[in-house]
Design goal:
Order of helices and strands of chain A: HHHHHHHHHHHH
Radius of gyration of chain B: 26 Å
CATH class of chain A: Mainly Alpha
CATH topology of chain A: Ribonucleotide Reductase, subunit A
CATH superfamily of chain A: Ribonucleotide Reductase, subunit A
Strand content of chain A: under 5%
Distance between the termini of chain A: 71 Å
Number of strands of chain B: 0
Largest sheet of chain B: none
Number of domains of chain B: 2
Radius of gyration of chain A: 24 Å
Largest interface: A-B, 132 and 148 residues
CATH architecture of chain A: Orthogonal Bundle
Order of helices and strands of chain B: HHHHHHHHHHHHHH
Oligomer: heterodimer
Strand content of chain B: under 5%
Largest sheet of chain A: none
CATH superfamily of the largest domain in chain B: Ribonucleotide Reductase, subunit A
Number of helices of chain B: 14
Structural class of chain B: mainly alpha
Number of helices of chain A: 12
Chain lengths: 357, 384
């Protein structure tokens, strides 16, 4: 289709521009300052004067920057249905965003990949198996969070900014562990059991439930695995990769706890809602825990090979107990203490001796 | 589940392969005697191979990592469980993926990994990499124009982050390379909306008016029902138009902070535009049956270009952001300055159109400019 339009031949023929927009501002005279002790001009430093008002509800579903002069005729664009602060907010989001930006790093150049040679084949394959699981977890995380972005109101831009770093961090975890799996040719091995992936992907009914599932349940598992790999990884490259990823995971956990706590502070009935949700999540995770693939691969790594698996599995039990303790501490900090209601399968993990080997 | 022990290790002789196989079987037997399942312990054909990388020259890059079956990108993906490309399937895994984009030509480009790695290397911080201390008080009309442009850019950068996000979740992980690039774009766009908000609020000004029209705010990009349509609207048209503006940042900057802001954002934006061009080029070369459909999308895009209507163009005629550009380019809001600014803005629009035409030609759709299909107003723009 060809559209006939008047070419712009000469700007001098154009009518003078309408400059009435120059008066449309709510907070003229704003002068945000860089941090006095370094750190530059942060996103939180912009919240001054009229721009410090972060409302409990955003009444529009379009992309108006918070504090801009509104144009009611703009209408809705679609998406952005999470319009209430309690549904997404965390006071730490702006700070965590800046922290994420300031800690930028690259798996290509900042991991000593050349130290990862001479690994026995069975250990190499075990590393590849753990890498496959972590890659798939990261891949699911990128799908889940990036899909939510279009539903989170631009009025709470600090949260959206932070979640952009979270998606990027998850991509880096995928990138790092795919490279590790390929480094000595082990490759991608067995895919994830998928039960928790499905649970995380099925939490679209509520962002807070997504946060709990992804960052309080799965996030604590990831963080514990990375912590152990940062100590017991078979090569310097393995230890360095896990070590570098840990702060990324810690930021998302910090947002999660801060957000859940905030949500409950605004809507106290959510404490029960979230507790009930975690019963379901614990059940699904417990079901996935019965799959031996991840635990066996970790046992081979920790034991130095298939022949050391019994010793390695003892360390896996320690890891599982550490994970549950971390999970309990996170839920307590978030305001949904699970210590009295923990599912039996998780209670078993707290006592490795009782769980057997 | 039966355990498959592959003996076809890359480059091994038959005897070596048999030895490797025997060693594995011994390990498996040892482990199973102790109650372990070990069905995941499968040596792939790539075991023992390594990607080429130089720690001193770029390191281990994503584009060099995959080998063997892991590097084979299927023309059509039946991966519904979200497994990483090349991973061993579990027959009992649930189908968790909602992946309407499962045909390679619909999303692929030849250099997705390279663009991702480039993005990783070029991350920057709006807090510390922009010399905010160089901001100084500007004449009121100039400051208002800066703030208007910054408000506009803050608003439209939400489009460029949120819309690709949706498509990441729609795309099978077998095509992880374009997904990785789109994730880097989400990160870039977050930084852009952040840096322009900072500019609006850092120099005695404030945020100005929101866009009063959803199409101008990128609504047509949201409504694209096909990835390539979205990419053409977002990457080739919308971001291309913004890139032309950013590249002229030196002309409309009044201090080093603004120059740095536009320069850094332009470097990100050029990757986003490159993604769109390279994807469209791949599609035109591998799926020519879709060319007519793509031409139809370009028809719609060009209506927006010709009329100054359509997402993300700060230079779109008759808009506050366009007037702000004229004030910044002309040096003031008095009649003479505005007229001078308008003339420069005209040159900006001409450049936008020329660059659009060049991108479409590189993408393999240049025939529209030779056979009369392209919107005639584009040629008029350039000739004016």
């Amino acid at each position: 289709m060809v559209q006939e339009t008047k070419p712009e031949a000469d700007a001098a023929e154009e009518p003078p521009p309408d400059l009435s927009w120059m008066e449309k501002t709510l907070g003229w005279g704003t002068r945000a300052r860089p941090e006095p002790n370094g750190g530059g001009l942060t996103v939180d430093a912009l919240n001054i004067g009229v721009y410090s008002d972060i409302p409990d509800h955003i009444p529009y579903r379009n992309r108006m920057p918070r504090g801009a002069y509104p144009a009611p005729e703009a209408g809705n664009i679609g998406g952005y249905y999470l319009q209430d602060k309690y549904e997404q907010w965390a006071d730490s989001a702006g700070l965590l965003y800046e922290e994420g930006i300031s800690r930028r790093w690259s798996t290509a150049t900042e991991i000593p990949w050349d130290t990862a040679g001479n690994v026995p084949d069975d250990v190499e394959l075990a590393v590849a198996q753990v890498a496959t699981e972590l890659c798939q977890q990261a891949s699911v995380e990128t799908e889940v969070i990036s899909a939510w972005l279009q539903n989170l109101s631009p009025g709470y831009h600090e949260v959206k900014l932070f979640l952009s770093t979270v998606v990027y961090d998850a991509a880096r975890m995928f990138d790092g562990y795919r490279k590790r799996a390929m480094l000595n040719g082990g490759g991608m091995l067995m895919e994830s059991p998928g039960k928790m992936n499905r649970q995380i992907l099925e939490t679209y009914a509520g962002w807070s439930e997504t946060v709990l599932t992804q960052y309080v349940m799965r996030g604590t598992l990831q963080k514990t695995i990375l912590r152990y790999l940062s100590v017991y990884g078979p090569t310097e490259a393995d230890r360095a990769l896990a070590w570098r990823l840990l702060p990324d995971r810690a930021r998302s956990a910090a947002y999660a706890m801060d957000h859940i706590r905030f949500a409950i502070s605004q809507r106290p009935t959510l404490r029960k809602t979230f507790n009930d949700w975690m019963i379901r999540v614990e059940m699904v995770q417990a079901g996935e825990n019965r799959d031996p693939v991840l635990w066996e691969a970790l046992a081979v790594i920790f034991g130095g090979g298939v022949k050391g698996m019994d010793e390695g599995m003892a360390r896996v039990r320690e890891l599982q107990a550490d994970w549950v303790r971390t999970y309990l501490s996170y839920t307590k900090v978030a305001g949904i203490d699970r210590s009295k209601k923990l599912s039996p399968a998780f209670q078993m993990m707290l006592n490795p001796d009782a769980a057997g080997g | 589940m039966a355990t498959e022990v592959r003996t076809d290790t890359g480059g091994a002789t038959a005897t070596e392969a048999a030895t490797i196989g025997a060693e594995y079987q011994a390990l498996l037997d040892y482990g199973r005697e102790r109650g372990y399942k070990l069905d995941w312990l499968q040596a792939s054909e790539t075991l023992g191979t390594s990607p080429n990388f130089d720690p001193a020259a770029g390191g281990l890059l994503l584009q060099n990592a995959d080998a063997g079956r892991y590097a084979e990108v299927p023309e059509y993906s039946d991966n519904m469980t979200g497994r990483p490309r090349g991973a061993i399937e579990r027959p009992n895994a649930p189908r968790v993926g909602n992946y309407p984009v499962r045909t390679k030509a619909d999303v692929w480009l030849r250099n997705g990994s390279q663009l991702y790695e480039e993005a990783v290397q070029r991350q920057w911080s709006s807090s510390v990499d922009v010399p905010w201390h160089t901001l100084e008080e500007l004449p009121d009309d100039i400051e208002r124009a800066e703030c208007m442009l910054a408000t506009f850019l803050t608003e439209v950068e939400f489009v460029a982050g949120d819309v690709p996000g949706k498509w990441i979740a729609y795309t099978t992980p077998d095509y992880y390379e374009p997904r990785m690039f789109l994730i880097s774009q989400i990160m870039d766009e977050a930084r852009h909306l952040d840096v322009f908000r900072k500019r609006a609020l850092a120099n005695g000004g404030g945020l100005m008016g929101q866009l009063n029209n959803s199409a101008l705010a990128g609504g047509t990009i949201d409504s694209a029902r096909d990835f390539t349509e979205m990419s053409a609207r977002l990457h080739i048209s919308g971001e291309g138009l913004v890139l032309s503006i950013f590249r002229m940042g030196e002309l409309m900057s009044y201090n080093e902070a603004e120059k740095a802001m536009y320069r850094l954002a332009a470097s990100d934006e050029s990757r986003h535009v490159a993604f769109g061009v390279m994807h469209l080029q791949y599609l035109s070369q591998t799926d020519p049956e879709r060319k007519a459909e793509i031409h139809a999308y370009l028809d719609e895009i060009e209506i927006g270009l010709a009329q100054g209507f359509g997402g993300q163009n700060p230079a779109a005629r008759g808009t506050p952001s366009s007037a702000a550009l004229s004030i910044l380019l002309g040096g003031g809001s008095d009649t003479a300055s505005l007229r001078e600014g308008e003339q420069i803005a005209l040159a900006v629009r001409q450049r936008q159109i020329k660059e659009y035409i060049q991108r479409v030609r590189v993408a393999g759709f240049g025939d529209r400019f030779d056979d009369g299909r392209a919107n005639p107003a584009l040629q008029a723009y350039i000739a004016a």
